[in-house]
Amino acid sequence: MNIEALAALLESRRALIDPETVPGLRRTEGQGRRAAGGGLSQEQVDQVTLRVRGTYNKLIKGKTKHPGIDYLRTVAAALRFTEQEWVALCRYARGEDPPAPLHPRSGKEVPGMWKDAINGLAHMGYVTDQSYNLLAHNTAFAGLFPRAAPPRNMLDWMLLSGEGRHVLTDWETVWAPYVLPQLRAARAALPHDAVLARIERDVMADADCGRLYEERVTAQVHPDGQERPLLHPTLGPSWVQICAAEPLSSPNARVMIVMVYPGASQSDVRRSHLRALWREGCVKSRLHHHRPHSHLGWLAQRRAPAGGRRGLVSGISGSKRAGAHSAVSLDHLLVRDS
Fold it and tell me: Which terminus of the chain has a lower count of CB atoms within 10 Å, N or C?
């Protein structure tokens, strides 16, 4: 528990809530500790959250060890937290992210700037809400569908449409066994989502999908980093790489980037994982042995003037004289012209 950060977050929000805007709140003039600026008193927070007097004070003083998630949710709702503040509250109080969004519509809305970001991509890109309803897409993605008209719901299209089963090569063995677990996971996380509930009913009623859904072949909850075959209507047989991400302000929504490689095989599109090139505590020894672990460092050595990597070595020496043993700016790897 990070008591200082927790108290600062809660008290700053408490000060912003005008008691007059809280329906049914009893007046407690002269009782309870008022927030700076005339916000709710601590006693009023207890009243709104239906707790005994002093409960909120124990929370901000760190006297409540590992407070329950239900209580934190009532406090967050009473203090009108945003989703980001809700995440911060759970991290400060419990050392973990919240199990679910604070607001029911958080996964149904995505900041409009994501549409501009998707439009700027050369690859196929689209955005869905928590129910897999399509919110935005770019021209490259529209080209995957007849008449450039993408479906309203991507899960519906991938699992239940004849067009989806035709475009998604080897649908029964490569696509469906990995998409169906995403539906199961979404239903578990969002049991009250009416759209997902309807799709699950349709899947179970479908002869092909219903059988595969019951087999529970895999437990993958997202497609990020996967490679699959696809029959593009204009590019022909292809392999695609799938990148999936979640907008941080919209829990359970997704941003999808699909890179298409016409005529390629799976081995042609496979990429290794990305890892940090520089590790803490290893910079000094690596630089002294002139073994660059980045493309920039390799290029610097390749381009260094004859007679001994003058630019690279002089950059290191300068850092050493300055006492910078623990970290070296990448600028020091740039070769200086002779």
Answer: C
